[in-house]
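EI: anyone free to look at a 199-residue chain?
SC: sure, send it
EI:
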Amino acid sequence: MSENNVLPVILAGGKSRRFGGNKANAKLGDLTLIEHTIQKLKNRFKEILIISNEERNKDISNVFYSNDVMDGQLGPLVGVLSSMEWIIDNSKNYKWIMTFPCDTPFFKIEIIDQMMTAQRQSSKKLFFLKSGEKRHNIFGLWSAELKDQLRKDLEAGDRKVEDWANKIGTEIIELDPKDDNSFLNINTKIDLEEASKKI
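SC: here you go
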């Protein structure tokens, strides 16, 4: 596997109900939350896809947007399917997608190499990160070959990432559980205030 085979995907299709607005565009320091993620990924990948049903910033080169391909706010799994469909619709050659949340700005760029290394050493088609007892199901590496199965299962009613991944079979990448800030997730404005103290 090389980075040329991997499409990084930022999942930003949620309603941000607890935040009270589109949190992807909330400012943390000089950048919005989604810009923090974009800046990290731009250093490693030629193209970035953002799955978003909200307002879009189209001024960043090689950053593309797509809506969810299924209606109803059905969760991150639909965002994953949407990215796989985007690859086909746009005649891209990516074999894998690597997913990132839009609201976890402190993740370390090294996790990209850790996921890619794990893929080279395994026959699995799905990889997630885990630190301590916490599994980070939005930080994942997904084979594009899972697309048809994912669509079928979504149409049958599957919604939870963890349940679907367990059914498919996933490789877990263990990380240092002491590194708490890397996966600080911003769900509310209070979370954003706490995060601002760490930059």
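EI: Helices lie at 33-42, 76-89, 110-120, 147-155, 161-168, 189-196.
SC: 👍
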